[in-house]
Amino acid sequence: MKRLISASILVLAACASAPAAEAPAQAWNTLTGERPIVIAHRGASGLYPEHTMMAYKAAIAQGADFIEPDLVMTSDGVLIARHDLYLSATTDIADHPEFADRKVARQTPFGEQEDWWADDFTFAEIQTLKARQQFEGRSMEYNDTLDLVTFDEVMDLVLAEAEKGNIVGLHVEAKWPSHYASIGKGLADPILDAMKAKGLKEAGIPVYIQCFEPPFLAEVAEKSDLPLIQNMVGAPYASMMGLEYDLDAMTTDGVGADVSYVLGKHGQPTDFVARAHDAGLLVHVYTVRDDRPDAPFTDSRDELKALFDAGVDGIWADFPATAVKVRGK
């Protein structure tokens, strides 16, 4: 069963960096009783431009259990790590005059947006771009110096770590798969085929597949036994988009929940984790940021502690070192 596979992944991730002898393990209120995982959100994206090799390597060095590559596809079918289909927020594409006429308007779930879109560019064209930090208040030191990376490169990174005895998992998000399906470029087969070609399973690399779109996850479920996470849009966007979620009807191994589902407006735990666990679902929570803790918290360490105490099974963090420290070994 998939949920047993999920539990084994958690055990593997928990044990990968454990010393040979240690004090009795802390009791956790997670679904399996194992310690929750720390997921490096787009790598150590609070310190370096997101989805760059520097961000991923830093996250691994900081002790993250999983790194998160968000995947989009170029016009010639190459999977690259980008959070958005559009490129202006995280690359220097606006400074490339040769691409000025490639800026076009598209309809998105949040309205019309004019931008440069990843699937309008070949991989060779993508390779001419450099990454940028998109959030004000974070270091801009590495802007325009780091390459955009492929999914193959991300997999090579964790495989190299595994060869050194350090097992780091992949928490893979497929971005806007319905768009790709509409243009005849489904994401499920390319993602699954790429992982099979790299031999992730044989190398013992734990993998989760996550997405906001249920049809994509259903397709992956038909083709793979990998554990799946149904991401849930947070307030107020869920109500704006007319989305409702029934935990008892979920067919995935877990949910990727916005913090607002787990902690109330005063920072108190809701009954969400208990209800999800009763339904046999893991709860992974997004996203804790040291420089932008969610209200009412003014310190991300307090927010992290509240989430761990609430029994979540995993947390996405922009600053994974902080999450690892708060969780403890």
Salient structural properties:
12 helices; alpha/beta; disordered N terminus; globular; 329 residues; 8-stranded parallel beta barrel
What composes the largest sheet? 8 strands, parallel, barrel
**Rg (C-alpha, Å):** 19 Å
With strands numbered from the N-terminus, the spatial order across the biggest sheet is 1-2-7-8-9-10-11-12
Task: Compute the number of strand runs.
Answer: 12
Query: Which spans of ≥5 residues are poorly predicted at pLDDT below 50?
Result: 1-8, 10-23
On the 0-100 scale, what is the average pLDDT? 92
**Gap between N and C termini:** 29 Å
Q: Which outline best applies?
A: globular
Q: What is the H/E order?
A: HEHEEEEEHHEHHEHEHEHHEHEH
Structural class: alpha/beta
Tell me the number of helical segments per DSSP (H or I, 4 or more residues long).
12
Strand content: 15-25%
Q: Could you characterize the architecture of this molecule?
A:
- This protein has helices at 2-16, 53-61, 123-126, 151-163, 177-182, 188-198, 214-223, 237-240, 259-262, 272-278, 300-309, 320-327; strands spanning 37-40, 66-67, 70-73, 79-81, 104-108, 111-115, 169-174, 207-211, 228-232, 254-258, 282-288, 314-317.
- It is of the alpha/beta class and 329 residues long.
- The strands form 2 sheets. The chain has an 8-stranded parallel β-barrel with strand order 1-2-7-8-9-10-11-12, surrounded by 6 helices. A two-stranded antiparallel ribbon has the order 5-6.
- Strand 8, helix 7 (214-223) and strand 9 form a beta-alpha-beta unit.
- Helix 11 packs across helix 12 (320-327).
- It starts with a helix and ends with a helix.
- The model is unreliable at 1-8 and 10-23 (pLDDT under 50).
